TrEMBL record:
Protein name, UniProt field: Sortase A
Keywords: Hydrolase, Membrane, Transmembrane, Transmembrane helix
InterPro entries cross-referenced by the UniProt entry: Sortase (IPR005754), Sortase_D (IPR053525), Sortase_D_1 (IPR041999), Sortase_dom-sf (IPR023365)
Family matches, as Pfam families: Sortase
SUPFAM superfamilies: Sortase
Gene3D superfamilies: Sortase
Spans through the membrane: 6-25
Active site: H112, C169
Source organism (scientific name): Shouchella lonarensis
Top-level taxonomy: Bacteria, Bacillati, Bacillota, Bacilli, Bacillales
């Protein structure tokens, strides 16, 4: 009986590892595809028309339309329109109801702590994010961070100025659905 139970546990462990490996590889592939799509969109729109209206720019749902450079982590990640599970599997999700860089209000982006924001525990106040849009690049410096409960939506609000709000699950090393969110508030860097 004990041998049967130990064999069953070994089989369950092997299946769990196989499923995790499959999901990890699938996620990495989706992010690579999104990054390629975003870079293609950026190269096509490298020099927007002189009369380009930044305020009216709106990407399609699930479109990888931009990239985020995180120098501290030496990463360039795709930004995808939407923050549901499908969008977050492809890259950093942009909250549809928030604005985009250059549009003068709160920009909300989210990502999984165990995919795009792996190593996010190294992020500190003073670090920067650069968002590369089809109409230009925008750099933001982290001025403050916060930890809120998973259901706290008060971080999504009008702020009266351009602020990049980047969120991910917290604690970073938590296994399963994390009970909190890490929030970084980054403000435009002016030359």
């Amino acid at each position: 009986m004990i041998k049967w139970i130990s064999n069953l546990l070994i089989i369950a462990g092997v299946i769990s590892i196989a499923v995790f490996g499959y999901l990890f590889i699938k996620n990495e592939q989706q992010q690579k595809q999104s990054l390629a799509q975003a870079e293609e969109n950026l190269s096509k729109n490298n020099a927007p028309e002189e009369n380009f209206d930044i305020q009216s720019y709106k990407p399609e749902m699930y479109e990888a339309f931009a990239t985020m450079d995180i120098p501290k982590l030496d990463k360039t990640l795709p930004i995808v329109e939407g923050t549901d599970a499908d969008a977050l599997d492809k890259g950093i999700g942009h909250l549809v109801d928030s604005v985009l860089p250059g549009q003068g209000e709160q920009i909300v982006m989210s990502g999984h702590r165990d995919t795009v924001f792996r190593q996010f525990d190294k992020i500190e106040i003073g670090d920067t994010f650069t968002i590369n849009m089809p109409y230009g690049s925008y750099t933001y410096e982290i001025k403050e961070t916060d930890i809120v409960s998973e259901d706290d939506t008060s971080v999504i609000r009008e702020m009266g100025e351009e602020v990049l709000v980047v969120t991910t699950c917290y604690p970073f090393s938590f296994v399963g659905d994390a009970p909190e969110r890490f929030v970084a508030y980054a403000y435009p860097v002016t030359d």
